[in-house]
TrEMBL record:
Source species of the chain: Massilia atriviolacea
SUPFAM superfamilies: GlcG-like
A Pfam family reported for this protein in Swiss-Prot or TrEMBL: HbpS-like
InterPro entries: GlcG_carb_metab_protein, PduO/GlcC-like, PduO/GlcC-like_sf
Signal peptide: none
Protein name: Heme-binding protein
Amino acid sequence: MPSKPYLNFADVQKIAAAAQAEAIANNWAVTIAICDDGGHLLSLQRLDGAAPLSSHIAPSKAKTAALGRRESKVYEDIINNGRTAFLTVPFVEGMLEGGVPVIVDGHVIGAVGVSGVKSDQDAQIAKAGIAALAQ
């Protein structure tokens, strides 16, 4: 039977700490969500000053990236390029940039979603968190 890596508690803490450090270094008030490959929430941090709504958006971005096996920006681009029918896709709510899958050995094992600043900055924070796994 094949096996694959998965996010354990130590991995989640490492990602969360690195993402938080990136946000704080840039003075960005955001919410950071980490989920497993099924989109189930493993961690949620709402930094001081982050809008309450961001605590709903960040997990949605993470879930979208995990279930879709790609960055949530892909879906935002599809919609912005005129395929508005994509809005009806079930289980996909966070179709904004800022959700990034965690990929290890070719397997999507989870995702990080960030909300609170510009979308490319949200993605920057998510990627900084994920990069910590390689260290």
